[in-house]
Design brief:
264 residues; alpha/beta; TIM Barrel; 2 domains; 11 strands; 20% strand; globular
Length: 264
């Protein structure tokens, strides 16, 4: 399908779903869709912190997405970027510093006066378990087999396999994880529409995470036919959420409360 056809389909689908949303006909779909706080409630809190995850729970999200990296001493820490920015103006690279060094001082916080700290992976799982939330876990670097095993075992020891999904934008990272732990739910962050990426996910039996408005809506049906789940990121307006609900996706990722009408 051409990109023009995809955009045209998306336009009419959006128009249809907006009309439906005005008449309140998406209540049933909202009850079955899991709303995921993108790095927690990241529009009002430092992302990937315990405070951000707790705030997402308070605001009604049903889950949270996070990013995991490995420290110099082999520990698992949350960080979207390769470096962390601190309140004192310094910046430390996750891969070249120990967990103790990375968590000993407060992070830069532009949202409020609270002291917030880098969050270990296990603590993320604990916070979400306390709130009964679903966990999206994105692999932000290449992991050794031992590190893959450590992520898996931390999930098993701290929470539950049926409440998590391991993700990566690099297909090899996901398939390597699957080879070692086929019982772990896995998701390929394919981004925008690309037939090669879509086919790769389908062939490998992977759930998929797609960027909003950048894919053929019929793709959702293709994954559902194979019993696979579809997530969409990042829906930050009512229009975005209505569009995602119209597609019947399983997960909607959002940075902000306005993109979430009601989390059931």
């Amino acid at each position: 399908m051409s990109h023009f056809a995809i955009n045209l389909t998306a336009f009419f689908t959006t128009l249809f779903c907006l009309l439906q949303s005005f008449t309140g006909q998406y209540d049933a779909q909202e009850k079955t869709t899991v709303f995921i706080g993108h790095r927690g409630y990241s529009s009002e809190h430092v992302d990937n912190t315990e405070e951000s995850f707790a705030a997402a729970a308070e605001k009604g999200f049903s889950g949270c997405e996070t990013d995991v990296r490995v420290t110099a001493d082999g520990e698992l820490l949350l960080a979207h970027n390769s470096t962390l920015e601190y309140e004192d103006g310094t910046e430390l690279e996750v891969a070249t510093h120990t967990l103790a060094e990375l968590t000993e001082k407060p992070l830069k916080n532009k949202y409020n006066k609270n002291k917030v700290y880098a969050c270990p992976f296990a603590r993320y799982l604990e916070v979400l378990k306390e709130n009964g939330m679903f966990c999206f876990i994105e692999l932000k670097s290449d992991f050794t087999n031992e590190e893959i095993d450590k992520i898996y075992q931390t999930v098993v020891d701290t929470y539950s396999l049926d409440k998590v999904s391991i993700q990566a934008m690099n297909l090899d990272r996901v398939t390597r994880f699957k080879e070692r732990h086929p019982d772990m739910p896995l998701m390929y962050c394919a981004g925008g529409w690309d037939e090669e990426n879509i086919e790769a996910a389908l062939e490998n039996g992977l759930d998929v995470d797609l960027e909003i408005y950048k894919f053929d809506p019929a793709i959702v049906a293709r994954f559902h036919e194979k019993g696979l789940r579809v997530a969409v990121w990042t829906a930050n307006t009512r229009r975005d959420v209505s569009y995602c609900l119209s597609l019947g996706v399983d997960f909607i990722e959002s940075d902000t409360r306005p993109g979430l009408r009601r989390a059931k």
